[in-house]
Specification:
The protein is of the alpha/beta class. Helices cover 50% and strands 13% of the residues. It has 15 helices and 11 strands. The strands form 4 sheets. It has a 5-stranded mixed sheet, sandwiched between helices. Helix 8 packs antiparallel against helix 9, helix 8 runs parallel beside helix 10 and helix 8 packs parallel to helix 11. The radius of gyration is 19 Å and the shape is globular. The protein starts with 5 loop residues before the first helix and ends with a helix.
Amino acid sequence: MIGSGNFGTALVRLLGRNAARHDVFDSEVKMYVYEEQIDGKNLTDIINTKHVNVKYLPDGPLPPNVVAVPDLAKAAEGATMIVFCTPHQFLKPMIKTVKPGLGKNPKALSAVKGIDFDDKGIVLISDLIRAELGCDTSVLMGANVANEMAKDEFCETTIGYTDQANGDLFKLAFHDPTFNVGLVNDTVGVELCGALKNIVAIGAGFCDGKKYGGNTKAAIIRIGLKEMKLFANTFYPGINDDTFLESCGVADLITTCYGGRNRKCAEAYAAADGKRSFDDIEKEIMKGQKLQGTLTAKEVNHVLHMKGMEAKFPFFTQVFKISYEGAPVDSIVTTPYY
């Protein structure tokens, strides 16, 4: 596991359980942890002795076969299954670091929510991993709030695959009575749902911060979902429409727009009427983790602007303008969407 934030830690709990449960896996699961000092002690030492990530998921006890490793290359050494769950802006150098030490015929899975871009347009995170590691890469996204997962509350997720055998193997690695895994042969659809819904959550948070009612928030979520689908079909024709009905789609959108951290940060921004910066809010609310919704809005806008398509996506464009260009927060409901 490359990543030890709250979602990465919630996922590695499942990997630890299933590594002990199924003979096909090695019993030990290594988790790369960026070393930090907590009350004068190394976070990795605390995790390996107390078996809990006290900073990012204090309510989620870890199986003893999960080992925290502060050296990225050593954490991935010899691995034939590797899961990435980090802020996407940090991913590229991490991939280069782990590549030389991986085992033979590695398989990767991305639980990274976001997109990248180059001078030609959109670059999916899974495509970055495939290109750099030269291996098949599956994608995991779903309605998975980490703090609820830590309490083993029932939820679902979606794994998108291109190779059925690898999809089945990653399902075996994650599936649990409290964490039901659905499989779809659509990595692109799964990944775009996971990234784009964070933009919609920012819009939903603006509604909450302005104290708008349920009708307004429902309208904003519906408009956002429509643009998610339009964006996916515009840039990646052939996506399976049914993917939007999986956990990675409408279910993840709902939970993120009502309970996620992107929503919470946007609510704080709107409550301050845009007079507090997102950087300041991120430090207060995210406690060392990174806000993805505003960054994804910026990256999506970069592509839309480059393609001359901003007018076709008025909701995505307005979330960007409010977040980065000082547009009034209430413009989220005064922008003409029809």
